[in-house]
Design goal:
heterodimer, A: mainly alpha, MetI-like fold, two-stranded antiparallel ribbon, B: mainly alpha, 2 domains, about 0% strand
């Protein structure tokens, strides 16, 4: 009896399992190599440019490779102003839409509304670009004129070199702006952010909602006291995910804006540039050193979106919404 | 069952002889109904607005429309439909607030106003979607009605030629080839990675998951620029459908891998354990239990990835080059695709070309819609368990 011992438990795979495990590991490694390779390659290619121009790469606003003046200050400001306009439209709309779907909509429409939002997310960005350029831009220009007329004293709503009260208004100063591009980008961002928020709102424990209603809360009281606090992580996370998408959006922006290399806080005024529209516009005639500069700009954009997305996923996972709650 | 367990061992012999349902100690009692009670009334009014409330609700919005028309179109210099709609929203909300204040307190006012703001936002979103689809449909209708739009390419067709000449066959074929190649690359790699991350696990899988999640942040234009600078500038290959397919694959791979990972993670652990407990190897468990269970979800993930890939313009803009003629070989030089065709034609500024671009956008939108509906139909059986 002395030599009876518990059998050794081993998780080591044998036979077919070993083949499967190592095969899967090889696939994982190759994907790691491909995706990680892109990041490493970008960093490696960006390094000469960053080394050569140093901090001036981030502070210089002109992009004139012929005169050896390259910087992404104006481009970054443009990227952020387009993204901010997009978020200003998309965030309130997506929160309200998510609330509508999860709390207000009649139950029989709910799944079709969810499908509608998912479908919006799948619509190609170039279609939204066409929509923004041909359908929305005239209205957006009119709205821009109105904003300048009444809110022009706020610097961001100012448009240089025009008189908003002129008898015939100069349309060309108000189109192709960060504002117009931001509206089209908002259409792309909204469904993404809305999908995340709706998912989190729908996880709100029914018991807590019913408790609020049973205590006599109105529906809005229930939303503000239960659903919104519960979904705060989802709201922040969805917003950040949308921001990450908005920063990298290319084709709608390229279609709408006219390029201008100038640090411009005036979002209503014609002309701006984002990192992605810079790449789309300049890659064709770029020499190898200019290509490195474009790759550096792309790398900076990638790092920014990566940071934004990482913060978003941390926020969503940390919030109470992610954890399984009882009741 | 609990009653029989409580009785103790002395009844063991009795239970062995008498079948369960004939045990004399447990008379079955049917729940009793009161025959004379009135039939239960459905509480129809619970949570629903009374006719009064409904009248106040609809009436406020009608009054709001009238006020808005009066103020924007007659009193203030704010002509046009947009101002009327904005005024309708403002005055409708205002009248709603006033009627709510007449019947209830501040809490009631807040509730009604919040409801109308939320519903209006939903209407705006709906209007944006519908306007996108209708606008593209109306502008792109004329070229689409010509059959040759689908059966011929643009070779030898001038920018000002009518719609009875030329079409987008080359762009459709190009999109198909590029996506096909991208899918052949991403499908095994993406799902394989997801299987590795969820089924094998370990420290290395965590690294892979972190990197894959990080790479979903890669802007699509940077993916295109990567392929452009590696394949076309550094290695000297010409622009081709293959390069475009690789760019799309680089963009799609993290998306599909991540979505598939999410799908595989929600496969119930009990199914895996049951399979392993029956003696199946891990490989058989994955192949016969995990993957079939997750199949609808995986199909949805892949199709949504494809829908994303087919509409993405920026990677193909950098890598494929727009040909006007049909190219069937992925390495035979420049190849057009639907998004690129739309982009190039819109940029040309020629009205006829723009109309063609809208036609192609209509086709692209229809394609995405079809893919999306397929994805929804495949996902449907899975929704019961969720």
């Amino acid at each position: 009896m002395a030599n009876v011992r518990p059998r050794k438990i081993s998780r080591k795979a044998t036979g077919g399992d070993a083949v499967f495990e190592n095969g899967a590991r090889a696939v994982g490694a190759s994907v790691l190599l491909i995706t990680g390779g892109v990041g490493v390659f970008l960093a490696w290619q960006a390094y000469p440019t960053l080394e050569r121009y140093g901090w001036s790469f981030f502070t210089e606003s002109q992009w004139q490779p012929d005169q050896d003046v390259i910087g992404i200050a104006a481009v970054l400001v443009g990227t952020f102003s387009v993204a901010m306009v997009a978020m200003a439209f998309a965030v309130p709309l997506s929160i309200l839409m998510a609330l509508y779907i999860s709390e207000y909509a009649p139950a029989r429409f709910r799944s079709s509304l969810v499908a509608l939002i998912d479908l919006m997310a799948a619509v190609p960005s170039i279609v939204y670009g066409l929509w923004g350029f041909f359908l929305i831009m005239p209205y957006a220009a009119e709205l821009a004129l109105w904003l300048q007329r009444y809110l022009g004293w706020i610097p961001i709503f100012d448009v240089a070199n025009t008189d908003p009260n002129a008898a015939v208004w100069d349309t060309t100063r108000y189109v192709a702006s960060a504002f117009c591009a931001g509206i089209a980008v908002a259409m792309m961002v909204m469904p993404m952010a809305c999908a995340v928020m709706r998912q989190v709102f729908s996880q709100t424990p029914d018991g807590e909602k019913e408790a609020a209603l049973a205590l006599g809360a109105t529906r809005w009281g229930m939303v503000t006291s239960v659903v919104l606090p519960f979904g705060r992580g989802g709201i922040i996370g969805g917003t950040m995910l949308g921001l990450g998408r908005a920063l990298g959006e290319t084709i709608a922006v390229v279609l709408i804006v006219s390029p201008a290399f100038e640090i411009k806080p005036r979002i209503l005024e014609v002309g701006t540039t984002t990192v992605s529209s810079l790449i789309a516009g300049r890659f064709g005639e770029a020499s190898s050193s200019q290509l490195s500069a474009l790759l550096a700009a792309g790398f900076v954009l990638f790092v920014i979106t990566l940071l934004v997305n990482t913060v978003a996923s941390v926020v969503v996972n940390r919030s109470r919404s992610g954890a399984g709650t009882d009741a | 069952m609990t009653a029989t367990q409580e009785r103790g061992p002395q009844d063991q012999a009795l239970r062995d002889r008498v079948p369960e349902d004939q045990t004399p100690e447990q008379p079955t009692t049917l729940p009793r109904y009161d025959e004379d009670a009135p039939p239960p009334l459905p509480r129809a009014s619970l949570g629903k607005p009374s006719p009064d409330e409904r009248f106040a609700h609809i009436g406020s919005w009608v009054a709001g429309l009238a006020l808005a028309w009066l103020v924007t179109q007659k009193l203030l210099p704010l002509d046009g439909l947009p101002w009327l709609l904005i005024g309708w929203f403002a005055f409708g909300t205002l009248v709603t607030a006033v009627t709510a204040a007449m019947s209830g307190g501040m809490i009631e006012v807040k509730d009604r106003v919040a409801r109308s703001v939320v519903s209006t936002a939903a209407l705006i979103v709906g209007a944006a979607v519908v306007s996108t689809v209708i606008f593209v449909g109306v502008r792109g209708w004329e070229p689409v009605t010509h059959l040759n739009f689908f059966t011929s390419d643009m070779s030898g067709v001038g920018p000002k030629d009518g719609f009875e000449k030329g079409g987008i066959l080359h762009a459709i074929i190009g999109s198909g080839i590029e996506l096909g190649i991208a899918l052949v690359i991403t499908l095994p790699l993406g799902i394989g990675t997801a299987v590795f991350m969820t089924e094998v696990g370990g420290a290395f899988a965590r690294i892979v998951r972190t990197v894959v999640e990080a790479m979903t942040a890669l802007p699509s234009i940077v993916a295109g620029l990567f392929i452009y600078s590696v394949l076309i500038v550094a290695l000297g290959f010409p622009r081709s459908g293959l390069a475009a397919a690789l760019a799309i694959a680089v963009m799609m791979l993290p998306i599909i891998a991540r979505a598939a990972d999410v799908v595989l993670r929600v496969v119930p652990g009990g199914l895996r354990e049951a399979s392993l407990a029956l003696g199946a190897s891990r490989w058989r468990t994955v192949w016969h239990v995990v993957l079939p269970t997750a199949r609808p979800g995986l199909a949805t993930a892949v199709i949504l990835g494809v829908a994303r890939g087919v509409g993405e313009t920026s990677p193909v803009l950098l890598t494929s080059g727009a040909a006007a003629f049909t190219v069937a070989g992925p390495t035979d030089g420049v190849m057009n695709s639907l998004p690129l065709f739309i982009y190039a034609n819109v940029r040309s500024g020629e009205p006829q070309a723009i109309a063609r671009a809208f036609g192609a956008a209509f086709v692209l939108l229809g394609l995405v819609l079809v893919l999306f509906v397929i994805a929804r139909l495949l996902a449907r059986p899975n929704r019961v368990s969720r």
